[in-house]
Design a protein that fits this description.
Blueprint lengths: L6 E4 L14 E3 L9 E7 L3 H10 L7 E4 L9 H4 L16 E2 L5 E2 L21 H5 L7 H4 L5 H10 L1 E4 L3 H5 L15 E4 L8 H14 L15 E3 L4 E2 L5 E2 L2 H6 L9 E4 L2 E8 L9 E8 L6 E12 L2 H11 L2 E2 L1 H4 L8 E2 L30 E3 L3 H5 L3 H10 L1 H8 L6 H16 L8 E2 L6
Parallel strand pairs: 2-12, 3-4, 3-15, 4-12, 7-8, 16-17
Antiparallel strand pairs: 1-15, 5-6, 9-18, 10-11, 13-14, 14-15, 18-19
Helix pairs in contact: 13-14
InterPro entries: FAD/NAD-bd_sf, Glucose_Oxidase_domain_2, GMC_OxRdtase, GMC_OxRdtase_N
Protein name: Glucose-methanol-choline oxidoreductase N-terminal domain-containing protein
Keywords: FAD, Flavoprotein, Oxidoreductase, Signal
Amino acid sequence: MHISLALVCYAASLFSSTVGNQTWGVTSSSDAADGQTFDYIVVGGGLSGITVAARLSENPALRILLIEAGGDNRTNPEVYNIFAFGQAYGGPLDWNWPTDMGRNEAGGKTLGGSSSINGGTWTRGVKAQYDAFSDLLEPWERSVGWNWDSLFGYMKKAESFSPPDAQQLEKGANSVPSFHGTSGPVHSAFLDAMYAGPQQKALLATVPKLTGIEYCKDLTGGMPNCVSMTPFSVNAHDHDNRSSSAAAYLTPVENIRKGWLTLVNHMGTKILFQNNSTIPHVATGVEFARTNGTGERFTAYARKEVIVSAGSIQTPAFLQLSGIGDSNLLEPLGIETVIDLKTVGRNLQEQTSSILAAHGHNTTAPDLSDAIAFPNLYQLFGSSGKAEAQKIHSSLDRLASSQANSALNADALREIFEVQAKLIIENNAPVLEVFQIIGYP
């Protein structure tokens, strides 16, 4: 079984066209990219897209085009002020996708994607969860290092952590230096305005008594099955402003990377292929349009690759518009099927959220939560934990059959569910995140 973490479409070589208008920096002008040829075109300027574009642009011989549907809102307080968390939801910086259940799904529609509007909590998963990638990969894929030991080094390489000062230590902050990087582009730190009220310390004291979960100094070392105070993706050297992917990877270099053009307020509408009927399919560029939906289409060409990094919702939609998806869905919509790949747009798994609210007397406390607990199955259910584990294991076949469709068969789903169940039952992966938000909404 293969897991596609990113789609890379290899492009045919094209002759370079004469560069006109703006050739680097950030622009909303269609003319800057229309008819131009780049080495790489990255569709989606969110967390991963900006990171990929930035790494590619380190080579001054390359020309990179990054296309982002949202605008450049780095100077908007709803973006740079971490304490404005939640204010962007439902507004122009939020995709606010409607669902068939009558609820809306939030997502960052701005440069930096959701890293520009989320809560900014700086945590990492369980070591075994990263190692589990290899359980679903082919042997040659496993050999490149899809595991915790390999990825942990890259996590630290991306990070510039500011350790807690004396006042923050007094409020409960702590850290393990070996878990953090100190010279990466993405900043992490405890907030100067950390809340010192009784609620946070009460959570740290109460959760262990209720669940048996232990306190730990730092959640980021691959063993987060504990309760602790967490840092945020903020820059302690810049007034605790948010360190989004845009602030981390674009802002420091946008005026010096002359080969990197970022086109905002535009959406990719489809991948262009050399010949739709020739296998293997070779991408030659991207058709794009203004996000405001005026209907006019533009084209940019790629010498090397088209990289699709538009997020878990927009990526499958873009692939389907490009003719990559379930032909039974595409053809009734008048979309020519290029690759009949029925798994596109299927098997999305989302987290649930349960909220308990109470009125308090302190209305001035920051909204963000510093204290977070990650109990496992046995800590959550106590004496009935083993029975719940047995229920999970005995239900795998039924769950796989009930969720199977033309995209994924029951055997494939069973394999995925088996990996997830093993993490929960045998590796004690947390099944719940417990935290407080003071004064929100």
